[in-house]
Amino acid sequence: MNDFSQRILAWYAENGRDLPWRCTTDPYAVWLSEIILQQTRIAQGTAYWQRFMERFPTVRSLADASEDEVLRLWEGLGYYSRARNLHAAARQIIALGAFPDTLEGIRSLKGVGDYTAAAIGSICFGIPAAVVDGNVYRVLARYFGIATPVGTSEAKKEFTLLAQRLLPEKEASAFNQGMMDFGALQCTPKNPDCLSCPLQSSCKAFQTGRTVLLPVKKPSVKPQERHLDYIYVRFDGETAIRRRGAGDIWQGLYEPLVSCHSERSEASPVLLKAAVRHQLTHRTLLADFYLWEPSRRPALPEGYTWIKETELDLYGKPRLFEMLLEAVNL
Question: Which residue in 34, 75, 171, 255 is the catalytic one?
């Protein structure tokens, strides 16, 4: 075993994080944690993982649930395609008869890519497949002095081959989890703890003073802005909502009356808050929040339906809708 891998394993044995899904090799529990932790911090994701495991303790219970129920439990995590894919993959697993135990089989599940397949495969089935995520990119780029911009196809190929070459086949699980934890706790994006780092003596970034310069990032695309009016209509203890369709953000979730700025009417709704900013990965939403309390029940646009205000918690909602409800004091 090479010196780099030995040091990572030794560091992990002493400093690895105590996470609830690390107390099991049940592929369902591990898979659930990996999907939740995509684009989600550990502190937030742990609570969601525990709620999902309590509500859906088995893959069958998840598969048997409705999509609405899964989306409601996911509410607040964002990137809702993960929840829909999770639900679809649970039904795939039931159709297969068992959780797949090969890298190809795991990768065939809806919403599972190379990283997630390698994580599940190595942790649950001992498959010698290296994980490559942001933490791994950072550790390898700094240690080996690699300046290939991450986020490119060239970098993915280069770093995957390197990580696979470093992977000790008989300790794939510990090495993969060690690399993730080392990047999250020791070799952090900002202010890495280089002085106590066990790799310091042979780290090219540290030796050449390039720690803050590596990894090199692919130039980011400026998020587009989208302007919306969110109108909470209230009549006789009811409000109007619609379910978002396919092909846009928040598919399958519910929203209030919405109109674009170009179509806005200043007639009866009362402005509660202006230019509320909600940041998505590739889009910045700027919303004006309105409360409309008409004296007669208005006709609703196509796709909308009346529900009791007391039943709002039964519907999965994006964070922006929750922010409107906070402005309305619901």
Answer: 34
